[in-house]
């Protein structure tokens, strides 16, 4: 089993590709990509721009989104990805948002893994309460329960959530990119399996990070009491 997991999780360096940036040609596209510059270099934004349908998932929208993600996945210069909306008042709304698992109020059962993932996040008792009652929660209530990481008061421009996301991206940006990537992989794959398999996945990811230049740089910077300079290798 460990050999199979190792094969599935083996990390391979990506080829250097041209960074993505928005251009006038992209103006009419439902999905637009913009690479930030200066101190924010390494952060890329995906702008959802379908105002006529309030960013509803249509064939063109989804096709362009998958195309953008496929290209960004192969770009080693992209360290953090932010999804934002070009439609005011639609994704995201910040602390004024209302959310809930309201399927039972319509005679339905939560789908898309709702009955499996929510208990893992919140515990069985609280997950049952939210699903059985169909209760709607404010952004602040959702944050208090751990359903969302952050809830911020809306600003006049309607983009308070974006600014919080950008600040979070700026915190992630200086960290070792391979370690972040493998940490994400260990969490995403590990949460889907039992604890023993999850620990095996974590061990495989940890082992892949050991020989990287970034790990050696991080240790050297710690000894020398300086800020590390990670290169993603």
Automatic annotation (TrEMBL):
Keywords: Lyase. It comes from the Eukaryota. SUPFAM superfamilies: ClpP/crotonase. The keyword NADP does not apply. InterPro entries: ClpP/crotonase-like_dom_sf, Enoyl-CoA_hydra/iso, Enoyl-CoA_hydra_C. Belongs to the enoyl-CoA hydratase/isomerase family. This is Enoyl-CoA hydratase domain containing 2. The lineage of its organism: Eukaryota, Metazoa, Chordata, Craniata, Vertebrata. The gene is ECHDC2.
